[in-house]
Design brief:
By secondary structure, this protein is an alpha/beta fold. It has 2 domains: 168 residues, Alpha-Beta Complex (Spore Coat Polysaccharide Biosynthesis Protein SpsA, Chain A); 115 residues, no CATH class. The chain is 36% helix and 23% strand. The chain contains 8 helices and 11 strands. Strands 1, 2, 3, 4, 5, 6, 7, 8 and 11 form a 9-stranded mixed beta sheet that branches. A two-stranded antiparallel sheet has the order 9-10. The model has no long low-confidence stretch (mean pLDDT 91).
């Protein structure tokens, strides 16, 4: 792991941080959208494609750090940021010009006028279409922080720990405008493995019957309850894929328990965490009050 360079934050400056691994298809778009930031830090997890080469021409600094989980990669990024405000953008996202202008205004004002964290609207896409319905649409992501006093925890859905309420920003991030079925399936395999391991660490169990049934419950929930089918044919395709993803996660979790209990003998390629060793986040941590101003 590279040496950290924690320095006193520079007032009024924005550090933008992107974590990446094999993102040559999208990294340039993400970094070009961060032109408003005073510095751009990329934490590259030893990419095997041209990610590092592309990022080197657009970022202030590119730090190579072997993959150690989403939360730790973001914490490494924090340690290299010099601004007193830090904006996190994923490599398959882009910040709109309106968002950049809003963040610069916030950073230029006295800290007492703002909370320690802002939650930013994110617009989702699939097969080139903006998604107006479905789970998480519209969604807001905790992405803009005062650098001091924030740390990340968790593996897939990494969680920032900080004090105080959250401000809301409607100027959006665009997420994955080029997401298609092939990339969805690639991400599905990666994320369902990590999600299954997380749930194993929480002590959660599942059954084959539950895994089978979750396809239909997810199809109904995402398509009808959250109105994902109102996105049209694209929404139908995405809802089916989301339902398959949920089944795969349950099947992987079932296999983890079968191996742990000695009913299946195979090399998983990963070390199983102790069952029940993780604690779920509290409601108070997940549901922060909205900032009402000084």
């Amino acid at each position: 792991m590279p040496e950290s360079h924690v320095a006193a934050p520079i007032s009024g400056r924005i550090s933008a941080c992107v974590i990446a691994r094999n993102e040559e298809r999208t990294i340039a778009r993400a970094l070009k959208s961060l032109a408003f930031a005073d510095e751009i830090i990329v934490i590259d997890a030893q990419s095997a494609d041209r990610t590092r080469e592309i990022a080197s021409g657009l970022a202030t600094r590119v730090i190579e750090n072997p993959w150690s989980g989403f939360a730790n990669q973001r914490n490494v990024g924090l340690s290299h940021c010099r601004g007193d405000w830090v904006f996190f953008l994923d490599s398959d996202e882009e910040a709109t010009p309106e968002l950049g202008a809003r963040l610069k205004r916030i950073a230029s004002e006295p800290p007492a006028k703002h909370p320690a964290c802002y939650s930013i609207q994110r617009i989702e896409y699939f097969l080139g279409k903006e998604l107006r319905y479905g789970p998480g649409n519209p969604s807001h992501q905790w992405r803009f922080f005062r650098r001091e006093g924030v740390r990340f925890e968790g593996e897939v859905h990494e969680f920032p720990r900080f004090n105080g309420p959250v401000g809301m920003i409607e100027e959006p991030i665009r997420h994955n405008p080029d997401l298609g079925i092939d990339r969805f399936l690639s991400k599905l395999n990666h994320y369902t493995t990590i999600e299954a391991l997380e749930r194993f660490a929480l002590g959660s169990r599942t059954t084959l019957f539950h895994a089978f049934g979750t396809f239909f419950t997810t199809l109904f929930k995402n398509g009808v309850r959250y109105r994902g089918f109102l996105n049209g044919r694209v929404g139908f395709v995405l809802t089916v894929l989301e339902s398959i993803s949920r089944v795969v996660r349950h099947l992987k979790l079932w296999v983890l328990w079968q191996v742990h209990d000695g009913k299946i003998r195979m090399d998983l390629g990963v070390k199983l965490p102790p069952p029940g060793s993780a604690n779920p986040l509290s409601k108070a941590e997940l549901e922060r009050p909205v900032w009402k101003g000084p």
